[in-house]
Amino acid sequence: MAGDIVSWFDDGDALVDYTAAKDGSGGDISALNPGSTITHAAKITPSQLDVTEESGPVVIIEAGGTLHGSGIYICNGEFVFALRTGADDGARELTDLDGTDGAMSVEMGEAIAGQENTVYASLNLTTGMILTSVNGNTEIRYLVNAVSSDNLTGNQTVAFLGDQALSIHMGGLSGGNDQENPFLNQSNTWIFDGVAGEPVRGQIFGIAVNPNLMANNPAPATSSVNIDPDVVSEAAFETAEDPANPGSQHPDVTGHFVTFYQGLNGDPNLGLPPLYETFVPAGSDPITVPINTPETFELDLGQEVFWRVEEQINGAPEGDSANILSPVWSFETLPPVPAAVSQPEDQAVFAGEQAVFEFSFTSKTAASAAWYKEGDPDTELLESDPDVTIELAQDGDSYTSTLYIDNAEVADQGYYYCLASNTDGDTQSSSAALAVKRMVGYWPLDGDYQDYSGEGHDVTPYGEPDPAQWVDGVAPAQTGQALSTIGRRESTGETEPFNAAEYTDEITASLWLKWPGTDDYGVIWRGIFSSRDDSVINWFLEIDNRNGIVRVNAPGYDAYQFAQISPDEWVHIAFTSSKDEVGAFYINGSQVAITNPGRYSINDTSRPVILGSTQENIDNMIEAVMDDVRLYNYAMSPEEIAGIYYDVTGEQICVEPNAENLVYDINGDCEVGLDDLAAVSVDWLNSKIFTGAAE
């Protein structure tokens, strides 16, 4: 293709192709929504000001809107590719490959003042690949926890360098002035200064570079860590593909120039003499290169190695422009200190149960391990505590340290980590949470707003209720009284701030509601139960006052509608939110809907819990009767929800009417039995198979 900036592409395929600075406005680019691939490319000559700006990003080229987008920027002298896939735009490091919060970024390489820089960043969300190139130095990294497709062009605004006034729609960057990293903050963006008179060019493509067109599939895998020097004897890769025949070797490749470099802190020292260089003739894949020998170079503990392959085309000499240069690959050997293999995982147990944490690591010398609970200061756990047991198992260089905490109680909640040590130093594991699963709020509403869970989260009403508002509950013998806000909606209220999902990232909300039907107040959505304040929403449950439709809402107002209730009837409503972002929704003890993982999530910050509203605003306060309001710090099972309903009504209900193992429940009685078999047998051997006339 021999494109001007991205040699793999035809310039005529560019979605935009600018040769002058542009501020951007909506509709500059065709929509990539949903899309999985995009490539940003630029040729520019930065000024000294561009590479020394210390307060925020200098815009090179970007596409997007306020929530979605991506682009290339100069941040503190480095080219950086940044990507946003939604509303979450929290602070992140210049290289942040974890897409959990919807924001990712990669340091591409140094921006050099006073000379032309050729850069591009190619994203493939389906594979998670970000391929970046700065002045011929190409690297590949892979995202984790990222979506496989997204709106890659936002509101289709494109900014290239900036002319007079940059658009506020900087989709690749974080927003607001409170972010920790100013270099990825759209509030601090700068117009490119450049060197006067030097040509510029900016392009965006809706495709990504195929890494298989270069030498590919390296072993050790690129960016791999903890490679044991005692067992590695070769590096390997596969030959560049034939563009005209995918899956086959490039027919013009006659050999491979392979070069290894010493690295430091993630950067290859390509300007220094290489560790080792060799030529390998073309052959069958995989191509192997002996290493870690006195004749090549030897691997040590704690070593970073970078390497790349230049595919020789038709016998050309090394460095010839016809040759195909691979990305720079890297791997790291085991450090001298213990190297983490697997991290402790969060534990959520009931009071009195045992919590277990494990940390596995490798150490080339004798090692020990200790466990700590985070605090001020952190506290070492000792086996003199009768509820604490610590074990260390060894198998050669592999170690596993296990912490057992018996008889867990609320006081044990917190974050725990392991410190592994050998003669060269220490390695600290990641921290894992211990939570005790329990009811964290219980408001029976028997003539008061007291929290009977024992957690002390009493509700303070916005306006004191009249005595007549304390009415019979759903089942007075079991539940006592209930609170009616009909005619006096300000008798709803809120607790002091607390975090119901602390250490668990999960909740269950449960209550009985009798909705009187629509009124003429005018506000449509009324709050039932929520956790929020003016700045942050954790979650909220609400009802459409016109028709009784019930839904949950979440940060970013990502609503999930799950039921419609009838007026003047007591209804039990419950929902759960699990750590893997699954929402499950229940009416009268039976599950009526459940989301896929990642569909419904909550915030777990300390905020007031509000009863009968979504905010301290009379417009959103419900007029209804509420009883037996409960909040748990874990996602209950369908059986547990059914139990809450049964305790009040004594009614046995179908826990999961849509369960897979009820597919043959013909008569709808929530079990597969003889009656269902009889129903099937009525049609036994009935057939509608087409038979040819000759038969």
Inertia-based shape = globular
Compute the gyration radius: what is it?
31 Å
What portion of the residues fall into strands of 2 or more residues?
35-45%
Overall pLDDT? 91
Separate helix tally = 4
Low-confidence stretches: none
Q: How far is the first residue's CA from the last residue's CA? A: 60 Å
Quick one: biggest sheet? 8 strands, antiparallel
Q: How many DSSP-defined strands?
A: 48
**What proportion of the residues is helical, as a percent range?**
under 10%
Content-based structural category: mainly beta
Can you characterise this structure?
The protein has 695 residues and is mainly beta. The protein has four helices and 48 strands. Strands 34, 36, 37, 39, 44, 45, 46 and 48 form an eight-stranded antiparallel sheet that branches. Strands 13, 17, 18, 19, 21, 22 and 23 form a seven-stranded mixed sheet that branches. A seven-stranded antiparallel sheet has the order 35-38-47-40-41-42-43, with no helix packed on it. The longest helix is centred in the C-terminal third of the chain and has 12 residues, at 638-649. The two termini are 60 Å apart.
